Amino acid sequence: MSAxxxxxxxxxxxxxxxxxxxxxxxxxxxRRELWPDEVRVRVEKLNLxxxxxxxxxGKHAAPGGTVDGDAVRAEVLDIVATRGKMQNPVTGSGGxxxxxxxxxxxxxxxxLQVGDRVATLVSLSLTPLVIEDGLRDWDGLAEQVPxxxxxxxxxxxxxxxxxxxxxxxxxxxxxxxxxxxxxxARVVGEYAARGGEVTAAVVGGAGKSGSLSLAAARAAGATRxxxxxxxxxxxxxxxxxxxxxxxxxADARDPIALRDAVVAAGGPAQVTVVCVDVPGCxxxxxxxTAERGxxxxxxxxxxxxxxxxGAEGLAADVTMLVGNGYAPxxxxxxxxxxxxxxxxxxxxxxxxxxxxxxxxxxx
Amino acid sequence: MSAxxxxxxxxxxxxxxxxxxxxxxxxxxxRRELWPDEVRVRVEKLNLxxxxxxxxxGKHAAPGGTVDGDAVRAEVLDIVATRGKMQNPVTGSGGxxxxxxxxxxxxxxxxLQVGDRVATLVSLSLTPLVIEDGLRDWDGLAEQVPxxxxxxxxxxxxxxxxxxxxxxxxxxxxxxxxxxxxxxARVVGEYAARGGEVTAAVVGGAGKSGSLSLAAARAAGATRxxxxxxxxxxxxxxxxxxxxxxxxxADARDPIALRDAVVAAGGPAQVTVVCVDVPGCxxxxxxxTAERGxxxxxxxxxxxxxxxxGAEGLAADVTMLVGNGYAPxxxxxxxxxxxxxxxxxxxxxxxxxxxxxxxxxxx
Lengths: 363, 363
Hints:
six-stranded parallel beta sheet, 11 helices, globular
């Protein structure tokens, strides 16, 4: 398909024969020229999605475990050249990018100015991208990819200006998961508006999205917040951060253990937020939630059918939400939580310093 | 695991080494003796889930297409003997059963009496089952399986007494999808309570769950209902039924076509209900929905990540619900819709008479 008129979804850049949105497309038109509602960004860094990088790393590792960085780099270059976007063909995921606005179409609704330093909050899996430096400054051995090239934002894309008062890596790390606190705050706020006790349980409470969600739940009026973590090490970190009223240990994949831990800490919860990227947490989250409560699934490891059939099989009258990564103002809200809640900031800074999270599982 | 104390989830009958709920279990203990909160049902018929039967049929079909019914029957017997439940190992799905209550544990909370003729509203994939007649009355060539044997219901299971004023097959056909109208009514009712226009669009509006959802949306206060169907034949049926204010044609897998069809009919919708069992409807459903609207996904073909990343990629501030098959009173509500809305009843009766739906896709 080739279109002379643009669509805010980016449909005009889809090269597939079938009508599909850019994310589902095999190939995008990554031409440099902009349609009137588009924005072009000069890229300085790609952050590959963790699942995508793990797949590439595993594919190009020798039996002993040594990763062939040149082969990883060659494959990323090949994917982008072939597809016009960085979307891992196996995992389907992308990542995000950082860059500087270099051109703004006259009809762009995004409110960006040339020279703004921005992070994209829509996935690389739907963002037209051209790499112009052969990724010469990347060794292929980490998810952070220094890169010179350009990317295109559509009318409905989202990009956030990187604030000047925070370390850029800290901002990016927050923006990466900023949908979770926004939706948590909205849902907890709805329960709080009805009056009465509102208990919010966050599974994976010491992780990035989990710690922000705990802080958001408290800010939105939860009367009790429960952080669920898998190990004593994470429990100690979360207690020290002081962002949960109760910290409990449970394997989220064990439905009875998760239920019992949350109930013992003052549950069941009116709102349960799942922030751990491991499969099999649906049943426990449902059982940890009160009747007429809400489960918010932010983990990409969530199985739609396990959630739907699980709730039915348990005769559980709970509302189950697919965690939407977008809400208006989500990046600004998450950054404000980071600025105003010292415990959240300390968890993020500790994570950045160690180049990985306090423990596996939580994202 | 072997437990002397029962758990309302049925955990005490799981034979796996890991702690998993009955639906996720490889094997259940299908012993005849009841724990105090259980109910035993004498089975007269199994209704295999459509996806499960299709898989079995395809596996045992000759190249010419002839299905080996004996082989299908043998495999069902083997699954039930091995797993203690009828859960297709490939699709993970089960189905439902009809039978008569033959024993009620003294602590059962289900309110059933010995002699009640019931349908189970929880999946066969978590229901302990023993087949005692070798399925001798089933030719293996249809989803409806005459069967003598017994099944066990847990404390949290759901079974509905089959009403005497309706054809039992009609009742079963309604109960099979009764979660959809209940949740649709709840969500539409919440929007209606805020005042203003409420447009509800049902994708797959001529199908079983779709037609009930259209009737539920209208009953709950939708000011405009839109039924989306794939072909003119279904459109004619739906117009004749008179249960949608607008009937529009669109391929639900084409996101732009679905969006444009719903918008042309008076949308975008405050509430969009997805009732077609085909993959790839997430993007169109999101685009057909107004900002701050809600998408309810009832299709088991829904992809969690396609919904989550799709909404984020489109910067769509929509609430997305995993369609929960359970809500209190859902079976009675759906049966009441069937009794009170002639157009719904005529669609169901026509479907039963033809032994299949008005068209593929809708469930």
